[in-house]
Write a structure and sequence with these properties.
Strands 3, 4, 5, 8, 9, 16 and 17 form a 7-stranded mixed beta sheet that branches. The relative contact order is 0.15. This protein has helices at about 45-55, 105, 130-135, 160-165, 165-180, 195-205, 220-225, 245-250, 270-275, 300-305, 320-330, 350-355; strands at about 5-10, 20-25, 30-40, 70-80, 90-95, 95-100, 120, 145-150, 150-155, 185-190, 210-215, 235-240, 255-260, 280-290, 310, 340-345, 365-369. Strand 13 (about 255-260), helix 9 (about 270-275) and strand 14 form a beta-alpha-beta unit. The chain folds into 2 domains: about 5-165 and about 340-369, Medium-chain alcohol dehydrogenases, catalytic domain (Quinone Oxidoreductase, Chain A, domain 1, Alpha-Beta Complex); about 170-310, Quinone Oxidoreductase, Chain A, domain 1 (Alpha-Beta Complex). The longest helix is centred in the middle third of the chain and has 14 residues, at about 165-180. By secondary structure, it is an alpha/beta fold. The protein binds zinc ion. Zinc ion binds near residues 100, 103, 105, 114 and 116.
Amino acid sequence: MGKTMRAARLHTVGTPMTIDAVEKPAASGNDVIVEVKACGMVPNLANVLANWQTWYPQMPLPPLPAIFGLDPVGVVHQVGEGVLNVGPGDRVYVNPGRSCGGCHACSSGQPQKCDYWTFNGYFGFNENSLEVYKRYPHGGFCEYMRAPANALVPLPDNLSFEQATRFGYLGTAYSAVRKLGPLAGRTVLINGGTGTLGVGATLFALAMGASKILSVARGEALLERLKALAPNRIEVFSNRDGGTADWARSATGGAGADFMIDTLGAVASLEAMKDAMAGVRRGGRIVNIGGTAGDLSVDVKWWMDEQMELIGSVWFTVAEGHEMAGMVRSGAVDLSVLETRSWPLDEINEGISGAANGNGGFTSYLIHI
Ligand SMILES: [Zn+2]
């Protein structure tokens, strides 16, 4: 105790982060200390933080000065006396989803439904998150962070730290693909297919057996790059060229896609989402993981008559993280198709403002610690 570590902290919204010396945490109980090696960067984080309290006033940020950083990876440094599942030296991804751990939702493996559901190092979902931040104040933009042992996903040798910093977006996509159900012989429409979530959804839908992926985005160049991942199974369409629903139906002999995942971002039009939904066939299932906000008008008669399912999905469980690590280990999912752009911790402000200018969902952004 008494030792310090380096941490990037935000003192006031709208100002640059500063590198501060703060107290180094120590392990106890069922918690561990992870020596952070890298942490994924949310694209355009500065803009997100600057507008957060206006866009989503009901969702609290961690109390300032705060250590952000959503997707940390590193090496287990120290374990509390109750920890069994990991030990010092283990390479791990730290799932930042925190919850109470003991309620009905938590104990049935659905922590996102817990009243305390919180993103460590980013934001909370209601005022309960302020209690969580007292217990787990560290995001990944620091040298050592405290985390519950049951939040860790051990990394296989063929999964690099850099690749694993993408697990948050990949996991969000994977969990959505899982919620579609069995994919064998089925067609999945992905709206926003070349974005950070869309590329992940494509990789996992391919690995899990989808026969056809209908990918919709804007730019032709990234759509062609996406199609090259599996030319016989991926069809691409730029919605600059027409309506998504018409295209999806024409690409499926008039029937429409069996499933849809929407990944559109915060500034996207809800009309684009509604158009894509109309390209899903009777009995279809639609999962939203995008950041688009607003009231979506849905014809509830269509919803009933066509037996449609509309599902919201946030983040992913630690168990799903284990499954993803297993798919990378086996080669079922190849993350080498992703490229990275990185900055050292000292240049975190350059990273925050620069993390948006790559090749859509093919580029991952991260900070080396
Ligand atoms: Zn709970």
